[in-house]
Structures are given as C-alpha cells and as structure tokens.
Design brief:
Layout: E1 16-18, E2 24-26, H1 30-49, H2 54-74, H3 94-108, E3 118-119, H4 124-147, H5 154-174, E4 182-183
Antiparallel strand pairs: 1-2, 3-4
Keywords: ATP-binding, Cobalamin biosynthesis, Cytoplasm, Nucleotide-binding, Transferase
Pathway: Cofactor biosynthesis; adenosylcobalamin biosynthesis; adenosylcobalamin from cob(II)yrinate a,c-diamide: step 2/7
GO molecular function, one term: ATP binding
Length: 190
C-alpha cells in the first residue's frame, strides 16, 4: 500500500531521484527517462479518456493501470535480484501483452484494409489516440535503448510495442471505423 502524506521531500533538489530499489540516480538517467516517458504516456491516455466512452473508456482505464505497472517494473533495476527482495517486485507479464493482441484483433475485424498511411487526426478521440501512439513509440525507443546497457524485463518492451499498435487501431475505430481516417497524399502540396 502506498501512502503519500507529504508530496515534497526535498530529496531531489540536487538533481537525483530514487529508483524502486532505493538506489539514487541522476534525474536524466536513461532508466528515469524511460519510466518518465511511460508516465507522460499515462497522462496522454488520461486526455484521450476525456473523449472516450463505454468499451473504449474501459480499455483505456485498463491500459492506464498497466502503465503504472510498467513504470513500477522499469523503476526497479536488477531483475536477477528479484528473488532476494523483501517483497516480489511488480513486473510486466505476457498476459498483459496478450490481452492487447486480442483487443487489437477484435477492433481490427470491421476495419477496411489501409491503402495509404494515416495522418494523425479525424475525431478528437482519434487525434488523442494518435498522440498516445507516438508517446508510446518514444517510450519504447527509450526502453529499448535502456535495455542495451541495463537489465530490462523483455515483457516491458513487448508491451510497449504492442500498445502503440493498439493505439493505432483504436484511433481508426474512433474515426468511425476508419471512415474518417485522414489519409496521406504523397506530394500533395508540391
């Protein structure tokens, strides 16, 4: 259980922050960049939810919770030491990614195949979901970069990869099943 009685602690005033295992690192460290971008993504999902309803809103709420799980996973380095921990660290698992794949397949069922790239836009919800997609891609790039030098749960990277696909398909659904997709016209303004 998390208890936040005091919001400011002054412990970060010198430009450092604590990771999930208590280690202190610079606020610009690669790990902090990765989970900080996941936090930013969660905020963009919150914006998308302002325009969502019913099943889409429920799915976005689940994703927001998953993103907190992902942040908890990324802020805790040294997976090899998980067994030594006082409590089991929260790690992303395959079923979270599997759920996204099932939802993508269901959403994609009634969409017509694409014959062009899509410009971000259309309905307000679709535009917000495209923003979520691009922030998810950035979080994925940062997490993959982190994994080249530090220990990262492979399920975290897979989840981010699949999540950006989910946002793309969800944006098409939000654009009246793809009918209001804004298509790229190569060289249209030459």
């Amino acid at each position: 259980m998390v208890v936040l009685n005091k919001i400011y602690t002054r412990t970060g005033d010198a430009g450092e922050t604590a990771l999930g295992d208590g280690a202190r690192v610079a606020k610009y460290a690669s790990r902090v960049e990765a989970y900080g971008t996941v936090d930013e993504l969660n905020s963009t999902v919150g914006l998308a939810r302002l325009s969502s309803e019913d099943d889409m809103d429920s799915a976005l709420a689940r994703i927001q919770n998953d993103l907190f799980d992902l942040g908890a996973d990324l802020c805790r380095p040294h997976m090899e030491k998980d067994a030594e921990s006082e409590y089991a660290p929260l790690r992303m698992i395959a079923s979270q990614m599997d759920r996204l794949e099932v939802e993508i397949d269901v959403m994609n069922t009634d969409l017509s195949p694409l014959r062009s790239f899509i410009l971000p836009g259309g309905t307000p919800l679709a535009a917000h979901l495209h923003l979520c997609r691009t922030v998810a891609r950035r979080a994925e790039r940062l997490t993959v970069g982190l994994s080249s030098t530090e220990d990262v749960n492979p399920a975290a990277i897979k989840y981010l990869n699949r999540l950006s696909d989910w946002f793309f398909v969800a944006a098409r659904v939000a654009n009246n099943g793809g009918q209001d997709d804004v298509l790229w016209v190569p060289g249209a303004n030459r």
